[in-house]
Amino acid sequence: MKTSSKTHHYLLPGYVDGTLSSTDKQQLEKQLESDALLRVALARLQATDSALRDTFTLEEPSRDFTLNVMAHLERVPVQEPVRSVRKSVMLLVSALLAAAGTALLLATGFFDTPTTTLDVNLFKLPASASKYVPQTIPVSINSRMLLNSIIMINVVVALIVFDRTILKPFFQKRLSQ
Amino acid sequence: MVVSVKQSVMIIDPDHSVIDRIVAGDASAYAMLVNKHKSYTFTIALRILQVRADAEEAAQDAFIKAYHNLKSFNKESKFSTWLYRIVFNTAVSYKRKQRQRFQDIENTVIQYAQEAEGMLEKTDKRKFIAKALAALNEADRMALSLFYLEEFSLEEISEITGIQHNTLKVRLHRARVRLAEELKTILQHEATAL
Question: Are residues A110 and A48 in the same domain?
Answer without folding.
Answer: no
